[in-house]
Amino acid sequence: MEDPGQKALATLRNAVAERITRGKIVDKLAEFSYPYRELMTFYRCAIMEVETKFRVLNEEFTLGDDCNPIATIKTRLKSPESILEKLQRRGAPFSVESIEENINDIAGVRVICSFQSDIYMLVDALLRQDDVTLLEMKDYIKNPKPNGYRSLHLIISTPIFLHNEKRQMKVEVQLRTLAMDMWASLEHQIRYKKENESITESIDDQLLACAELSAEVDRRMQRVHDETM
């Protein structure tokens, strides 16, 4: 008798290969595995936990400086097709255990700040919390990517408290200034969202120049901010 799990996995792989719609992938995942949907619920809970931590910090810092360090908080849960594609790229099996082990950015929280100094202040405050464990940090502000991308990335582990257990969950946290976020959003739209295959070296150079301009805006605004404190 054919293993239902293997049959479902084969169906999922065929679905990705045939580029079927996201809705159909979600349907197949729902058919395949209650544990998958349960895991996504856990990640959503982790997102809420981390978002709340930042909102509490924002309120606290507002009391002291009469200034909100956080302009916006955005959250996202990695899509089913992105999870499948990432597992396939890594040659990892499709299972709940494999998802948790091989993918760190399923739960994502992006914090948009006014000034660079706010980013480091928030990171320091977050990592001092005794229920937050830093797993990985990449500082693309001090060390920008070759294309000009700037942001501070963290992978953290934090507990969620369920009705009968406590679970450690991984969350990716990105912290950017408003200028960094504007550049990253527009660069992503140009390079990926339009599936533009005509990105030339000239366009790459222009995008890098725009990244340098946005970084200079951040530096100047930081100086103005420091002078008025």
Can you describe this structure?
By secondary structure, the chain is an alpha+beta fold. 56% of the residues lie in helices and 19% in strands. It has helices spanning 4-17, 22-32, 34-65, 80-89, 96-102, 116-127, 178-193, 201-227; strands at 70-77, 107-113, 133-139, 152-161, 166-177. A hairpin with a 4-residue loop joins strand 4 (152-161) and strand 5 (166-177). The chain is flat, with a radius of gyration of 20 Å. It starts with a helix and ends with a helix. The mean pLDDT is 85.
Strand percentage lies at 15-25%
How many DSSP-defined strands?
5
Please list the strands of the largest sheet in the order they lie side by side: 1-2-5-4-3
Shape verdict = flat
* Series of H and E elements: HHHEHHEHEEEHH
Count the DSSP helices.
8
End-to-end C-alpha gap: 72 Å
- Multimer state: single chain
Q: Provide the structure class.
A: alpha+beta
Mean pLDDT: 85
Q: How big is the Rg?
A: 20 Å
Largest sheet: 5 strands, mixed
List the helices and strands and how they pair.
Elements: H1 4-17, H2 22-32, H3 34-65, E1 70-77, H4 80-89, H5 96-102, E2 107-113, H6 116-127, E3 133-139, E4 152-161, E5 166-177, H7 178-193, H8 201-227
Parallel strand pairs: 2-5
Antiparallel strand pairs: 1-2, 3-4, 4-5
Brief summary:
This protein is of the alpha+beta class and 229 residues long. Helix content is 56%, strand content 19%.
